[in-house]
Amino acid sequence: MDLTIGIIGFGARATLREEAHRPGRGSRITAICDPSERARDDARRLLPEAFVTDSLDDLLASGVDAVMVLTPDDTHAALSIRALEAGVAVFCEKPLAIDLADADAMLETARRTGSRLYIGHNMRHMPVITLMRGLIQDGRIGDVKAVWVRHFVGHGGDYYFKDWHADRRRTTGLLLQKGAHDIDIIHWLAGAYTEQVAAMGELSVYGGIADRRDRTGERMPDWFSVDNWPPASLTGLNPVIDVEDISMVNMRLSGGILASYQQCHFTPDYWRNYTVIGTEGRIENFGDTAGSEVRLWNRRHRGAAEADETFVVPEAEGAGHDGADALLVAEFLRFVRDGGATETSPVAAREAVATGILATESLRADGSAITIPALEPELVAYFERGQVE
To answer: Which parts of the sequence belong to the Gfo/Idh/MocA-like oxidoreductase C-terminal domain (predicted)?
Structure first.
């Protein structure tokens, strides 16, 4: 029998419906909730057999087995907690929450109710990341001691400064909103969580643009164009812009591993570069999609050198995020049905959120290091057991 799935928030990430709606093959979307009339009209057109409403209570009462929370960041915690309290399994899009207390409350609610919680950190399924992690796990560079990440957010102006993303009340900041992915992957590749974090950042470009307007009812595809260049020439930015467009973070992870993360929203190119250095070599990706290369150096060289080995990032089935979305949703559905271990982790999602939130606190103060508060060991153990008491 198919699992019945409810979608909460039929906006940009509602493309995940293509992976979740497989009638007769294990799952079907039966209910959709969104306060936007445009979103509800889209839902009725794309999924005509589904129940469409603006009431979360009505969606939860419809008898769905699980929900996918695909709403703006500041709503994740409240919506997820209500669904967990109703005994419904939850897929929550990253970031887990924009407030650390809310993130911890989500985990605590999942444990207390026994409702399954899954977080949409799809980068753990991206071929470039799984390739790099496999090399690390195979011992090809020895013990990891440093991870350096540069995130060139070439579409930043259109993606994050023309709507709610630019308002810190909705996101805390882009270091959390966008960086939650990368911080999670830093932790995953290093096999350790951040213990201390310090950061600096600025609103360097987009804060100086005076052309602003309310885009209520619009969506990012309505205004996006690669011809919107250079960054300072953009028009129609969000009325409120109080998040940083460039930030730099230093992290001390458990075991003495050091990491850094740089994020810039006004670069001409759009990709992530990871460098992982171990006791016996290093790896680095050049491009992050299928056909890109991961290069490995594990011999001593004089100066810059060709890689000792090169690995090509493989193709993956599915279009979303280089195939990662299909793998993500498939893992969620399997978890709802059967339980068991998953590549994603609510604890890891919390640690990424904690690092991003406190890094933002550091950069908005004097850049001093802040210690990440630890979760209760019993709560960590619950999720490590696969959410089984």
So the answer is: 134-365
